[in-house]
Amino acid sequence: MKKVSFRIRKIYFDQTVAGTKPFELRSYTPFWIKRLLWNPPPRIAVFVCGSKKHQRWIKNIKVGKPVEFLGRELSEQGKQDISTELCIATYLGGQVIQNEQKALDNPLVYDPLVYITQHIIDEHGGKISPSELEDIIVNKMKLLKDHKEFQKEMNRIGVVYRY
Question: Which of 30, 33, 131, 146 sits a CA distance of 20 to 30 A from 155?
């Protein structure tokens, strides 16, 4: 599973761990384009601050102007960090947690819909049309009506869902 690492300042690391930082912005440069936008895109963001690490699922990756994501102009520090007119926003999902009973490479996520989507794409070898994917997801979402059935499906594909 592809990961991408972000070195960030402590204030942003703390916000990421707390789940209050919804996305990470990076300059639209060849360095970040290669890491974030080339196929396959990363599914896990690893945040590094000193010796501390924290992993979050990637829900989406978008390109746009910083003001579109922030709702304001960049600060002076932000202008130094994001040196291009466009930037790449990596939207963050739930924390990646390792299950002690399963192999360490079998990640668990609090945001099951993102994981289910990726799992379906993986099951089809990446070759599934958007309409087929949507049909499968709609059927899986029907399981939400019966929590026991939903939990069985989550366990089948190795995901623990927590409210």
Answer: 131
Q: What's the pLDDT tens digit per position in 59-110?
A: 888 888 999 999 999 999 999 999 888 899 999 988 887 643 233 344 433 3
With beta carbons less than 8 A apart as the criterion, state whether 161 and 112 touch.
yes
On whether residue 62 sits in a domain, the answer given is yes
Rounded CA Rg of the chain:
17
Query: How far apart are the C-alpha atoms of 145 and 138, rounded to whole Å?
Result: 12
9 and 89 inside one domain: yes
Q: Is the pTM of this model over 0.85?
A: no
Backbone φ and ψ of 3, nearest 5°: -120, 160
